[in-house]
Amino acid sequence: MATIIRIKRSTSASAPGSLKSGELSYSAGTGTQANGGDRLYFGKGDDGSGNATTIEVIGGAYFANMLDHVAGTLTASSAIVVDASSKIDVLNVDNITINGNTISSTDTDGNIILDPNGAGIINASTSLISNVTDPSSAQDAATKAYVDNASATKTLEIQTDSGQARTINLADSDLIIHGGTQIGTRRAGTTVTIELDPTGVATGTYGSTTQIPVFTVNSQGTLDSAGSVAVATNLSIAGDGGTDTVSLLSDTLTLQGSTNITTAVTDNQVAIILDSDVTGLSSLTVDNLKMDGNTLSSTDASGYLYINPYPVGDSGNLVILGNLVVEGTTTTINSVELTVNDKLITLADSASDSAAANGAGISVEGANASIIYNSVTDTWDLNKPLGSIRNHLVNFTTDNLSEGSTNLYYTDERVDDRLSNLLLAGEAIDLTYDDAANTLQVDVEVATVTNRGAANFDSDQMTVTAGLVSIFDLDGGTY
Predict the structure, then answer these.
(1) In Å, how far from its chain's centre is CA 180?
(2) Which stretch of 237-241, 262-266, 296-300, 308-312 has the lowest confidence by average pLDDT?
(3) What is the Cα–Cα distance from 363 to 373, expressed in whole angstroms?
(4) What are the CA-CA distances from residue 130 to residues 116, 133, 138, 142, 340 (Å)?
(5) S-S: 183 plus which of 166, 179, 273, 458, CB 3.0-4.6 Å?
(6) What's the chain's average pLDDT?
(7) Quick count: other Cβ atoms within 10 Å of Cβ 8?
(8) Contact 170/155 with Cβ under 8 angstroms?
(9) What is the pLDDT of residues 105-162, one digit of tens each?
């Protein structure tokens, strides 16, 4: 028997409301641009449950009919298909028609506007632009005849700092350029040069490291004379002791630091700096804090010495590199949580034997709870039970022990746990252990899209013979 495959279909002119991922459907209703008829649809994407996330149009008679005409011929209500030369006979774009070598407008008295983007230009590629009308406004292009006629009557308007403006007709008048006070003019060919007359001041460089230049300027703003005058080149200096003279031309003024004081010069600025490491002092006292040799002490009568890494909010960390030795009588820690990185905490460090360590341990204030070492019995004494394992450590006998030295209870619950863990559920298998009924039920799961399991077969579309499944009809149905 041949296999028949039918996709989902409808006689309506609308798209399907939903499809499975990868499913096809066809709407056979008459298709237009405004509906979904004569179209082939495809279920795209998967929402995790086998359903398509989008329904895409992938073809249909509505689109194929638009291509049913001669290639290269513009056809109404059809797609544009170019011919073997990648051409089409005519093209209409809004009010513009391109036909052969002609670009024309279809609206009455319509303009054709060429508008390059930004600084783009209209380039005729060295070709001649002909049949141009003479310009009528300031921004119109000009013809050669118009330019020739306009240049024949061209005039030049001259306006100066003083006197009235005058218009000169370039066709029959001369323009004379005349220099004024200390300004001369000269012509070479068609070039006119306007320049200042010489002032008589000698050419040279004025001023030096020991002299400054002096100039005299007349009412026209030019130099009448130039010269130099001498300036002082020595600087007198004095200190707490001694005086000296510094030559600004040859000497360097040096600021020398002394004990615990250094100097630095950067960008024409002199910095006098007190060294961060003060040396040469036998001791140093700041308020109630004294540093003497290796000892940091308090001079306050209260006898308190505070180390506060970050006074704001009493926060921050105090880090001690090396060993910490506390030789006082009592060590008190007021922090909320004590964290120790060491794996071993030693109590009674100075005890020589177990008798000397008798009574060592841990005590919880307020709860009257303690773990204390008893040297007589060589055991730990706990005055509180150990929570959830209390029943395993108090009042047990050999009658309720099993499995050698493991000290585990041999109970029905332990046997049930061993039995329930003996069998493990596999793919499509569920195991249910009933402790009260002492039963173990094995079930086969029902198959789903995402879960393997047992399934029934539809006899309308497939047959099952001797365990072999044959599909003879795949029908997507209608919508």
Answers:
(1) 68
(2) 308-312
(3) 11
(4) 21, 9, 20, 12, 98
(5) 179
(6) 84
(7) 19
(8) yes
(9) 999 988 999 999 999 999 989 888 888 888 888 888 888 887 777 766 677 788 877 7
Phi, psi of 283 (to 5 degrees): -160, 165
Instruction: Encode burial over 92-121: b for 16+ CB neighbours within 10 A, e otherwise.
Output: eeeeeeeeeeeeeeeeeeeeeeeeeeeeee
**What are phi and psi for residue 415, nearest 5 degrees?**
-65, -40
The CB-based long-range contact list for 424-428 (8 Å cut-off, 24+ gap) reads: 427/452, 428/452, 428/453, 428/454
CA-closest candidate to residue 478, choices 16, 44, 3: 16
Do β-strands 361-364 and 54-59 pair in parallel, antiparallel, or remain unpaired?
Answer: unpaired
Secondary structure letter of residue 201 according to DSSP: P
Domain boundaries, the chain: 283-314
User: Is residue 39 classed exposed, middle or buried when 0-12, 13-18 and 19+ CB atoms within 10 A define those classes?
Assistant: buried
Give the phi and the psi of residue 269 in degrees, each rounded to 5.
-120, 140
User: Which SS3 state, helix, strand or coil, does residue 419 take?
Assistant: helix
3-state secondary structure of 414: helix
Residue 407, CA distances (Å) to 214, 335, 385, 386, 399 in order = 114, 40, 18, 16, 11
User: 3-class DSSP state for residue 89?
Assistant: coil
pLDDT tens digits for range 365-397: 889 999 999 999 999 998 887 765 555 454 444
Q: Which residue bears the tokens 């004081």?
A: 261
